[in-house]
Amino acid sequence: TKLRKFALALPEASEVEAWGHPTFRAGKKIFASFGHHEDRPCITVKSTMPEQQTLITDPRFFVPAYVGHKGWVSMWVDEDLAWDLIEELILDSYRSVAIKRMLKALDD
Length: 108
Description:
The chain contains four helices and six strands; from the N terminus they run H-E-E-E-E-H-E-E-H-H. It is an alpha+beta fold. Strands 1-2-3-4-6-5 form a six-stranded antiparallel sheet.
C-alpha cells in the first residue's frame, strides 16, 4: 500500500500487473515492482551497477533474477527497512526512466 501510494504520486506514473504482480511505470518503462522471492515480499527498483554492488553488501538487498545483470536491485520488505531509503531508491529509479516532461513536473 505504501509503495503504491508513493509510486502513483509521481508524474504520469501508472500501475500495470505483469508477471503476476504489480509494476509501476513512468510511461511504458518500469521503475519499480512488488513481488515475492523465496516466499518473502520484496520491492525491485532500477539502479546503476555501482549502486547495486554497494546495496547488496547489506543483507536486506539482493540481485534479482532476469534483470539483476542490468543493475536492478531488490530489497526485502518484511524486515525493518527505513521507508525514507525505499522512497529515495524508488525516486532514483523513476528519474532514470522518466522523460523530460515527467522530470520537469516532478521538479516543479
